[in-house]
Design goal:
Elements lengths: L1 H17 L10 H24 L10 H26 L6 H7 L6 H45 L22 E3 L6 E3 H21 L1
Antiparallel strand pairs: 1-2
Helix pairs in contact: 3-5
Protein name: TVLP1
Pfam family, one: zf-Vps39_C
Length: 208
């Protein structure tokens, strides 16, 4: 047995010495592992270069940046739609309230289609109200002047002055004068006539 083992060992050494191109067991494994490791490192470095390259698809942006950009694009589209609605429905929208709801960075140039006709309408309405106010003031002055003229007029009551309603003398009773300045009546008669007119109008409205 010992002789057989020695013989096999000699044959093995002989084959190894005659075949230098055949690598020994375990001699090629480290080189292979080392080459595979370099290959993996190169692939990782290439992937990093692709990720951070300016010409890459992501262009150095993270997912959060992409979402922010998408939100900004959506907000821009929404703002354009709002401005378009304001320019078309400016006559049905409260201008001051609408401006409070818009973003602060909204350009004034973009608001011109909305503010232009709105300001023109406001100016026109202000001028109309000014004219109406002047007319009302003038009318009020005329009424005051007429009232002063009526109060200034003098009416002479004599012992023969008669009440136009009861056909009795006025005497010393309280009297009323109609707007024509000539018709004189007792105040009691005037009050009763007004009450009768009111009752008559009420009964007619019930019949209708």
């Amino acid at each position: 047995m010992k002789t057989t083992k020695n013989f096999e060992k000699k044959i093995t050494n002989l084959v190894s010495s005659q075949s230098p191109g055949i690598p020994k067991i375990g001699s090629g494994t480290p080189a292979k592992v080392k080459g595979g490791r370099f290959k993996k490192i190169a692939e990782i470095e290439g992937a990093e270069d692709t990720r951070f390259s300016p010409s890459g698809t992501d262009s150095g942006r993270s997912d959060g940046d992409t979402e922010d950009a998408a939100e900004e694009g959506d907000s821009t589209i929404m703002l354009d739609q709002v401005l378009d609605l304001l320019s078309k429905r400016w006559d049905r929208i409260h201008g001051a309230q609408a401006l409070k709801l818009l973003p602060r960075d909204t350009k004034l140039q973009n608001l011109l289609p909305f503010l232009g006709p709105l300001l023109r309408k406001s100016s026109e309405a202000y001028r109309n109200f000014s004219v109406i106010k002047s007319l009302r003031e003038s009318e009020n002055l005329q009424v005051k002047d007429e009232l002063y003229s009526q109060r200034k007029a003098a009416l002479k009551i004599t012992s023969d002055s008669m009440c136009s309603l009861c056909n009795k003398k006025i005497g010393t009773s309280v009297f009323a004068v109609y707007p024509n300045g000539k018709t004189i009546v007792h105040f009691v008669c005037f009050r009763d006539s007004q009450n009768m007119k009111a009752v008559g109008r009420g009964s007619q409205s019930r019949k209708r």
